[in-house]
Amino acid sequence: MMKAIVQEGYGSPAVLHLTDIEVPAIGDDGVLVRIHAASVNALDWHTTRGMPYFIRALDGLRSPRNRIRGVDLAGRVEAVGPNVTALRPGDDVFGGTDGSFAEYTATTVDRLAVKPVGLSYAEAAALHVAGLTALQGLRDKANLQAGQRVLVNGAGGGVGTYAVQLAKVFGAHVTAVTRTESIEMVRSIGAHEVIDHTAEDFTRRSERYDVIFDIGGTKPLGHCRRVLARSGMLLVVGAPAGRWLEPAGRLLKAVALSPFVSQRLVPFISHNDREGLAQLGGLAGRGQIRSVIDREYPLAEAANAIAHVGTGRARGKVVVKVQ
Fold first, then answer.
1. Residue 216: is its pLDDT beyond 80?
2. How far apart are CA 106 and CA 254, in angstroms?
3. Of the chain's two ends, which shows fewer C-beta atoms within 10 Å, N or C?
4. What is the Cα–Cα distance from 165 to 187, expressed in whole angstroms?
5. What is the per-residue pLDDT for 54?
6. DSSP secondary-structure letter at 23?
7. Quick check: 114 pLDDT over 80?
């Protein structure tokens, strides 16, 4: 048996309970990981509430099919299936799974990478979704080049802190937009310029940016285009959640508008990428990027961790310590 945070129905984080359940079995291609740390994403908040409502159509009308929240992990391999040769019991790993707020999880080798020795479990657990979103957006979609000008809107959150650092690693000039209390933190991770969104509307600036990495989704697409270079790219990563469709609606608007303008409006959701995980681990292990951790909670308080992320006030990542 193991302890896990199990979701019963949809609603506030009160629907989450610490419960004893069976340790998951693995197949021939599976990997059983003993989890040491997991991190919280906005996805966990949305799935807990079942909002926007289209989540329920995809994941279960009355409760989610997978009842254990959490998709980011760091831990130690406990067992592997007979077809797995890239990992063995005792290896420290980080990456993704379906249900990481638990003592054990069953996942697959293509969702994992070896944890760098100098990286803590908490730091490694934070990398998966947020780090891959920033890496794939800047590296693959924007093909970011040294000397380009990048604006990161929503720079103080989990994805934003990695986006600022990765843009700088790629040699770009980075302007970060965040709230007042995150300014010094964002400056400390390498932003060349920081805009306090409570004091200044970045869409009214005279500067033009080659890439806008828009996590916050706080400004209309047309306003963002005003400060985007004529051939620039607006990466639409997120938006405030609504009851029915948002943030998906903002992504669909970008798709509809993009063919009619000179700029590229690109909606973006990260995908599984073992090579990308290894690249993030290497950068973090060498100190070129770091995981900004706002708070850590024990497994029994995972509901509070999700609630904190739901406030939108977390600076960097929120981590659940399991072992």
1. no
2. 36
3. N
4. 10
5. 66
6. P
7. yes
- Spatial distance between the Cα atoms of 216 and 218, rounded to a whole number of angstroms: 5
Dihedral sign for Cα atoms in the order 135, 128, 16, 313:
negative
Q: Count the alpha carbons within 13 Å of 304 in the hemisphere toward its beta carbon.
A: 9
Res 256: pLDDT: 65
Residues present in the chain in total: 323
Tokens of 34: 């003993």
Per-residue model confidence (pLDDT) at position 239: 59
Per-residue DSSP letter, 52:
S
Q: Which residues contact 312 (CB under 8 A, 6 or more apart)?
A: none
Tracing tokens 């279960």 back to the chain, one arrives at 60
CA distance linking residue 144 with residue 101, whole number of Å: 35
pLDDT tens-digit readout, 143-197: 999 999 999 999 999 999 999 999 999 999 999 999 999 999 999 999 999 999 9
**What's the CA gap between 222 and 208, in Å, rounded?**
14
Q: Prior bond to 52 cis, omega within 30?
A: yes
- Give bridge partners of residue 298 from the DSSP assignment: 321
**Angle between helices 128-135 and 158-169 in degrees, nearest 10:** 40
HSE-up (13 A, CA, CB side) for residue 62: 1
Q: Cα dist. 213→51, 110, 138, 246 in Å? A: 24, 27, 8, 18
